[in-house]
Write a structure and sequence with these properties.
86 residues, mainly alpha, 4 helices, 55% helix, 0% strand
Length: 86
């Protein structure tokens, strides 16, 4: 079971790495209910982030992970999946 949680800082770094989008982690956290497309991230970019997280943690995320609409929704799903050991 994984006990660490993916943070807004890590999500911002993943957005840069997987999708080439630079977002200030504080801005991401402050606007956590805003849709990903308001940050310039599309579903393909989010799919890249999902793949990177699966590789990093050796755990599969739910098939609909890339359909999350907001950073808060995405982090909640990812963190609940990782801490549950799924």
């Amino acid at each position: 079971m994984i006990t660490t949680e993916v943070t807004f800082d890590e999500l911002a770094a993943l957005m840069k790495q997987a999708a080439g989008i630079t977002v200030d982690p504080k801005e991401l956290k402050d606007a956590a209910e805003s849709p990903f497309d308001s940050f310039g991230l599309d579903s393909l970019g989010l799919l890249g982030i999902v793949g990177e997280l699966e590789n990093r943690y050796g755990a599969s995320l739910p098939p609909d992970s890339e359909r999350c609409r907001t950073p808060r929704e995405f982090l909640a799903l990812v963190n609940s999946t990782l801490t549950a050991g799924a």
